[in-house]
């Protein structure tokens, strides 16, 4: 009787925990910089993330992440020196599941223009979108991401104190949740920068989840500054709590296109 009661209580605790967990946002793993895409320019980025060791079971109706490839296309258009709009297409491929469309997001972003000469870079991103229920417990979400960054000699610092809100789904009653991101990097040369990126999802503001139920990831990363037109970022991430995928490899490859063509003189 006692073992059976213990099993029932353990199962109840597991289900309660699962109901609070969010699907991990392993589609676009990036700490934002405060700058925006220049006017009349378009940035096209491919975010490729592979979960080497992740969730192996269906949790709250969400598919496992273990050995899943997440491929995201991000297209960002610059309109002014203080405003851009980004659009995302999320996809997922996993053995046995095939390659599926996950959802789409749109992201307008405003920034403080460089000509104002503020001591730090500052911008605000608002991202809203849909993701299919089999990939996320929340089908409609809203992300508000303030971005603060600073270049100090060879050092670069960025902090994204992100606030998330479920608009429809299992966590709609949780209110606003805190998901901070941060990055510290160092220029080893004009081409190579190395650093550490942090990604967290701590739970509802004012009532954080227990540490074991939070998502905490650290990514040693490298940036290759081969050209102003290219963005190249690679990293390997380690999850340090039981609610986080334990090992992820990520790559970002981006290309900037300038449409501000000038007519050649005759």
Give your account of this protein's structure.
With 266 residues, the chain is mostly beta strands. It has a single domain (2-258), classed as monomeric porin ompg (Porin, Beta Barrel). 7% of the residues lie in helices and 56% in strands. The chain has 1 helix and 13 strands; from the N terminus they run αβββββββββββββ. Strands 1-2-3-4-5-6-7-8-9-11-12-13 form a 12-stranded antiparallel beta barrel. The radius of gyration is 20 Å and the shape is globular. 32% of the residues are buried.
Short description:
This protein has one helix at 2-20; strands at 41-53, 69-80, 83-94, 98-111, 121-131, 138-152, 155-169, 176-187, 192-201, 203-204, 215-224, 230-239, 247-258.
Features:
single chain; 12-stranded antiparallel beta barrel; Porin; about 270 residues; mainly beta; 13 strands
Show the helix and strand layout.
Elements (H helix, E strand, L loop, with lengths): L1 H19 L20 E13 L15 E12 L2 E12 L3 E14 L9 E11 L6 E15 L2 E15 L6 E12 L4 E10 L1 E2 L10 E10 L5 E10 L7 E12 L8
Antiparallel strand pairs: 1-2, 1-13, 2-3, 3-4, 4-5, 5-6, 6-7, 7-8, 8-9, 8-10, 9-11, 11-12, 12-13
């Amino acid at each position: 009787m006692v073992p059976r009661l213990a099993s029932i209580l353990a199962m109840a605790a597991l289900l309660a925990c699962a109901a609070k967990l969010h699907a991990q946002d392993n589609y676009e793993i990036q700490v934002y910089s405060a700058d925006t895409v220049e006017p009349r320019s378009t940035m096209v980025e491919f975010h490729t993330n592979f979960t080497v060791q992740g969730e192996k079971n269906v949790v709250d109706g969400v598919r496992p992440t273990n050995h899943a490839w997440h491929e995201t296309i991000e297209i960002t258009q610059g309109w002014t020196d203080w405003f851009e709009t980004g659009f995302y297409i999320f996809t997922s491929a996993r053995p046995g599941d095939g390659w599926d469309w996950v959802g789409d997001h749109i992201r307008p972003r405003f920034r403080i223009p460089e000509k104002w000469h503020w001591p730090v870079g500052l911008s605000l991103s608002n991202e809203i979108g849909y993701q299919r229920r089999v990939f996320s417990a929340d089908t409609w979400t809203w992300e508000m991401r303030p971005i603060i960054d600073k270049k100090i000699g060879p050092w670069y610092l960025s902090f994204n104190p992100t606030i998330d809100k479920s608009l429809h789904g299992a966590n709609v009653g949780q209110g606003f949740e805190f998901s901070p991101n941060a990055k510290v990097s160092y220029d080893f040369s004009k081409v190579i920068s190395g650093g550490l990126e942090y990604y967290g999802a701590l739970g509802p503001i004012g009532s954080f989840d227990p540490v074991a139920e939070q998502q905490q990831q650290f990514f040693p990363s490298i940036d290759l500054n081969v050209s102003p037109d290219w963005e190249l970022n690679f990293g390997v991430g380690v999850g340090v709590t039981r609610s986080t995928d334990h090992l992820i490899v990520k790559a970002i490859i981006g290309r900037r296109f300038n449409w501000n063509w000038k007519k050649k003189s005759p």
